[in-house]
Amino acid sequence: MKSCITLSLVSSLKGGPWVLWDNLADGFKKAAEFGFDSLELFTDGPKAGAPNELHNLLNQTGMGLGAVGTGAGKVLNGLTLTDKNPDIRAKAISFIRDMIDFGAQYNAPAIIGSMQGSHGEQVSREQAISWLQQSLEELGQHATSRGVTLIYEPLNRYETNLFNHYLDACELLDQLSTNGISLLADLFHMNIEEDDIADSIKKGSKHLGHVHFADSNRRPVGNGHTNMEPIAQALKDVGYEGCISAEAFAWPDPLTAAQTTIDSYKKYFS
Ligand SMILES: [Mn+2]
Questions:
Q1: Which domains does the chain have, with CATH numbers?
Q2: Which of 45, 83, 84, 179 is deepest in the core (most CB within 10 A)?
């Protein structure tokens, strides 16, 4: 497994669940000093820093790019894959394609979380899921053509009403013809929704592609009441080799949060 820490370059979303903030070079320097293997980026679009800066930082630090988040497509641009407006759906697909291409340059998958949207008064559940399936088919094929996977993230009930449970998302993937999609096990969302997080990870391990590592209150692991031991054991038992990525609040501050996270990573995974 690989330790991974989130870095957001979107200052307007300060207070969101990312550990490091604002500056690409500083973020890489700090993450490398703490000993993280990789870094997950949250950007406002398919670019980060000056031309070649990301490439150079990856080379200089020896770190990997763990993933790139697409949430800005929704939060900043109002784009989702299940909007009633076909122009917005098309723009959402285009945004995610660009993010897949961006990440693929560095062998990193893109993550679809909030851009999946929700069903509601004007879009039935059946319709929203149909649009989501079509989008995942197309984007999964695109990711495969770029040599990466695309990661789909089930979210808790307060953030989407499409797929809240990990194993329901596994069924969604089983129905697709593309093999280009894998799933994100976000331990904060799962803490709200799952009966047994470790059991869901074991049962759905074939689709597991990424882990968001946060405690019950979305603070760095060690600050809440999630029982991490059986979850870590499940990840070891299924032979998971991907990122354990801290998508957590910078609580009480970014550097303390990074230290708590790497300490917890070592405690549970090394
Ligand atoms: Mn997440």
A1: 2-252 (3.20.20.150)
A2: 83
Q: Do residues 58 and 27 make contact, with C-beta atoms less than 8 angstroms apart?
A: no
CA-based torsion, 56, 62, 67, 70: positive or negative: negative
Strands 208-212 and 64-69: unpaired
Strands (E), 138-261: 150-152, 181-186, 208-212, 243-246
* Three-state SS letters, 59-104: HHHCCEEEEEECCHHHHCCCCCCCCCCHHHHHHHHHHHHHHHHHHH
**pTM (whole model) above 0.85:** yes
* Distance of CA 212 from the midpoint of ligand 1 (Å): 5
| Whole-number pLDDT of residue 269 | 97
Residues within 5 Å of ion ligand 1, judged at the Cβ atom: 186, 212, 247
Q: How far apart are the CA of 39 and the centre of ligand 1, in A? A: 14
Burial (CB < 10 A; 0-12, 13-18, 19+), residue 98, is middle
Whole-number Å distance, alpha carbon 104 to ligand 1 midpoint, is 20
Classify 126 as helix, strand or coil: helix
Helix (H) or strand (E) holding 56: helix 53-61
Positions in the chain whose pLDDT score sits under 70: none
Cα atoms found within 13 Å of the Cα of residue 185, Cβ hemisphere only: 28
pLDDT tens by residue, 133-153 = 999 999 999 999 999 999 999
